[in-house]
Amino acid sequence: xxxxxxxxxxxxxxxxxxxxxxxxxxxxxxxxxxxxxxxxxxxxxxxxxxxxxxxxxxxxxxxxxxxxxxxxxxxxxxxxxxxxxxxxxxxxxxxxxxxxxxxxxxxxxxxxxxxxxxxxxxxxxxxxxxxxxxxxxxxxxxxxxxxxxxxxxxxxxxxxx
Length: 161
Hints:
The protein is an alpha/beta fold. The chain contains 3 helices and 7 strands, in the order αβαβαβββββ.
């Protein structure tokens, strides 16, 4: 179970509203707790585009999603394998596009063949495969390293017509 120690800015404020303003995380545990809070309300079949520098907390966030959905075992960045599927209460597919160089290379991964509802696709380095169809309506989480331990996470959700 996660202990949520990040500061609630306003009583009753949803995790989406908090992330929209930016949530300060002071440790890996807090980053995972924020991810668990989002996992609890994340709509099924959602793509998360995780933006941020190396070491900004993207993989740590994915670990929090995995734990919230009952996924056990190690969850690491699939830098060399490009993606890794994890099965729990929700299928989590963790993509690390760092080594991809073509903006449309995401299409070649055939990830859509793996998607079985409910799923979440968490994509690190989405800017490297920005032309991939499944990133078009992604929720974007931006990770900012403030210093050695503090991170700020912000969420942007695309407007639907």
